[in-house]
Amino acid sequence: MNPYIQGNITKLKVLLPGERRKVWQLIGTPQGMGKWFPVECLGKITKGETIEFIWVAGAPEKFKVLDVKENEFWVMEWVEGAKVKYALEGENPVILTLEVTYSDNEQGKATQLLEVAGWTFYLANLKSIVMGGPDLRRKDSSYGWKEGFIDG
User: Fold this and answer.
1) 84 within 8 A of 76, measured Cβ to Cβ
2) Which of 34, 71, 82, 102 is a Cys-bridge partner for 108, taking CB atoms 3.0 to 4.6 Å apart?
3) If you write DSSP's letter for every residue of the chain in order, what string do you get?
4) Residue 21 — φ and ψ, nearest 5°?
């Protein structure tokens, strides 16, 4: 039983030691998203707009922005009919809640179970970026065990 999965919803929270404005720049703008999630994010995070995620491997993916309340939350379409909500609480530090609602069927459940580890990784990467650490998506030989990272 995974405590972060309840039915067809995955909900993860991360404490980010930074100002709300800085965190919003990382989660609520295409330039910020490209620093921790996809390699690049194109388009506008505006209700009704389409954004495009460019990944290290695989084809680019397009998603519709469903709702935005600047400096508070935004919601987007996701794969297999899922929806992702990024929501902020607090001023400094900030709590980011990532909530992914999957289709309530076998395919949705399978996708949910496959993705929970990935969501956890990307939130860890976001926290590293907020704290001025390395981008965990890229191998950086300048970091070793003495800095708290193990090179593979």
Assistant:
1) yes
2) 102
3) --TTEETTEEEEEEEE-S-HHHHHHHHSSHHHHTTTSSSEEES--STT-EEEEE-SSS--EEEEEEEEETTTEEEEE-GGG-EEEEEEE-SSSEEEEEEEE--SSHHHHHHHHHHHHHHHHHHHHHHHHHTT---TTS--TT--GGGT----
4) -60, -45
Note the residue count of the chain: 152
Output the CA–CA distances (angstroms, integers) from residue 54 to 6, 30, 49, in the order listed.
30, 11, 17
Which CATH superfamily includes the segment(s) 5-133? START domain (3.30.530.20)
- CA 44: distance to chain centroid? 16
> What are the backbone dihedrals phi and psi of residue 140, each rounded to the nearest 5 degrees, phi first?
-130, 110
pTM for this entry: 0.88
Cα gap 96→127, rounded to integer Å = 10
Among left, alpha and beta (phi > 0; psi -120 to 50; other), residue 109 is: alpha
Do residues 82 and 96 touch, judged by C-beta distance below 8 A? no
